[in-house]
Amino acid sequence: MLIAMEELLQPDLNAGPVVASETPYRLSIEPLGGRVRARIKGQIVADSVDARVMNETYLPSHIYFPKDSLIAGLLVPSAFRTF
After folding, report:
1. Coil, strand or helix: which one is 21?
2. What angle do CA 69, 71, 75 make, to 5 degrees?
3. Per-residue pLDDT tens for 32-78?
4. Which residues partner with 47 through β-bridges?
5. What's the pTM?
6. What b/e string do you get for 6-40 counting C-beta neighbours within 10 Å, with b at 16 or more?
7. How far apart are alpha carbons 10 and 7 in whole angstroms?
8. Contacts of 71 (CB under 8 A, 6+ apart)
């Protein structure tokens, strides 16, 4: 199975706000299963059968690729950091 990142489900932006008391906070990281490719302007920058999806309450899902699945020379380090 081949899944392009742009084909993944996006959150329903027309849905009303989620109130913290209604939904407990959850975080899960799970294998996607199958082959996943990431593209920027049509150029494949990552290709993996070991990608993971992180689902977090109140946020859109994100896909994480193993470093060895990145296509060498196409991406550069960023100063952006998160926690």
Report:
1. coil
2. 110
3. 889 999 998 999 999 999 999 999 988 899 999 999 999 888 888 88
4. 37
5. 0.62
6. eeeeeeeeeeeeeeeeeeeeeeeeeebeeebbbee
7. 9
8. 44, 45, 46, 47
Q: DSSP strand E in 1-83: where?
A: 2-4, 27-31, 35-40, 43-48, 52-56, 62-64
Q: Is the dihedral of CA 70, 75, 76, 77 positive or negative?
A: negative
Positive or negative, the CA dihedral 42, 82, 31, 76 is: positive
Provide the residue ranges of all domains of the chain, joining segments of one domain with +.
27-66
Strand-by-strand arrangement of the 43-48 sheet: 2-4, 35-40, 43-48
Bridge pairing between strands 62-64 and 52-56: antiparallel
